[in-house]
Amino acid sequence: MLSGGYKPCAMHGFSYKNGALHCENVELSALAADYGTPLYVYSGGTILDHFTRLDAALAGVDHELAFAVKANSNLSVLRLLVTQGAGFDIVSAGELFRVIKAGGDPAHCTFAGVGKTRAEIVYALEQGIYSFNVESEEELRYLNQVAGELEMVAPAAVRVNPNVDAKTHKYISTGKSENKFGVDFEKIEDLYARAAAELPHIRLRGVQMHIGSQLTSVAPFIEAVERVRPLVMRLKQRHGIEFWSIGGGIGIVYQGSLESGDPAWWQGCLPEDLPLTIAQYGAELVPRLKDLGLRILVEPGRYIVGNAGVLLTRCLYEKKGAAKTFKIVDAGMNDLIRPALYEGHHEIVPLQQPVTDATVAVDVVGPICESGDFFCQNRELPDFQPGEVVALMSAGAYGFTMASNYNSRPMPAEVLVEGDTTTLVRKRQTLEDLIAGEL
Ligand SMILES: *Cc1c(COP(=O)(O)O)cnc(C)c1O
After folding, report:
1. Are 337 and 361 part of one and the same domain?
2. pTM for this entry
């Protein structure tokens, strides 16, 4: 998929060529000039490459990749994945609407989330989704009631909380009993038995789990699969379930250096010495899953798109304080909230390759009236100047989808690069857009 001078293991489409940072074959400074900043840029080749690699790693088992739409829901990104035969994991009616608009098949959609509304349930039932992934007994009973009123049968799986520590940031850890997600491991069989006896408008089609996001070790995945597998086999025997979704959560590399000489530092192509590689994920999980006679669903979000996107932002001012130097840029936490929300790390890379190794310690901050509005603090970076554009790397997942209009800032544009071709896939919002819908 990746054309041009990419090294075989480089899975991301971002590299310096002749001193200028490119996305695939397109120079990023040209995109900043043409479309303005802040600007999200996605590499289509990287998305396809990551999808294909995960698919290949799971080749030994009957499986389906259901892309977690909340990571990146741009219609053009979804369309790319539709061409690869992806399914989709959705968390709202809005995401299902997007998948359908992108040409996706609802019969390959699973619907997750702890708070589905009646309107969402009705819409998803009418569209014929593959499964409601239910997060509580109360929700299962409500689903049965709504399906009954429509004289339909709702396909469902209950999310089991395996009580495994994913060893990730506390805000993105979901598989411990103190998290709000899923039903306690010990209560699942009883719930399936009662549902089979009492809920005629539910078809128990599968079972689901998802222990957290940005996992950087394969061990918690193994632990969860080992712990839940005997339960899944009993559910298959008693209730004839046909699928087991093992969730998403595959971590990516955010930290590294374009100058380190290692082309694999932050892309999903993890160097051999990293704790989690996609080959290892497949090698450890496939043998544990392949003889169950079940269809295995995987719900990757970040892994598919995280390293496939950057956010371009222009430096506006340099402000030298008594204690610190601030580089003030035109992107803010409304455009990319990961640092503020999760202490997320993004490499900050000048579009023009620095000619020296010299660095300065700076805070890169946005224009928003919040002290949490920073992209890094006290980080050694090349001394980029006002007027220059830098790239916030690995911003393809939970970037634009979490953007907001806070401070009445229009949301940024998004472009998709495929080889030599650039497509504007979302227009920058205008000031008029900001007030559309207000009365
Ligand atoms: C968020 C989420 C995912 C995707 O997580 P990633 O870490 O982006 O792979 C998958 N399944 C469920 C239920 C989720 O909530």
Report:
1. yes
2. 0.94
Whole-angstrom Cα distance, residue 227 to residue 244? 13
Question: How far is CA 287 from each of CA 31, 166, 192, 226, 229, rounded to the nearest angstrom?
Answer: 45, 21, 27, 11, 12
**How many domains are there within the chain?**
2
Q: Which atom of ligand 1 is nearest to the CA of 214?
A: 7
81 inside domain: yes
Pick the last residue of a domain from 270, 303, 336. Answer: 303
pLDDT digits (tens, 9 = 90+) for 113-160: 999 999 999 999 999 999 999 999 999 999 999 999 999 999 999 999
Given ligand 1 and candidates 210, 302, 338, which is best to mutate, with the most ligand atoms within 8 Å of its CB? 210
Catalytic residues: 369
CATH number at residue 343: 2.40.37.10
- Distance, CA of 50 to CA of 81 (rounded, Å): 11
pLDDT tens by residue, 191-242 = 999 999 999 999 999 999 999 999 988 999 999 999 999 999 999 999 999 9
Kindly report, residue by residue over 284-328, the tens digit of the pLDDT.
999 999 999 999 999 999 999 999 999 999 999 999 988 899 999
Residue 364: domain span:
14-41+307-434
Residue 381 Cβ contacting ligand 1 at under 6 Å: no
Phi, psi for 388 (deg, rounded to 5): -80, 150
Q: Which of 95, 139, 160, 213 to mutate to test the pocket of ligand 1 (most atoms within 8 A of CB)?
A: 213
Residue 100 lies in a domain: yes
Q: Is 228 in the pocket of ligand 1 (CB under 6 A)?
A: no
Nearest to 88 by CA among 71, 108, 73: 108
Q: Which region among 103-112, 268-277, 313-322 has the lowest average model confidence (pLDDT)?
A: 268-277
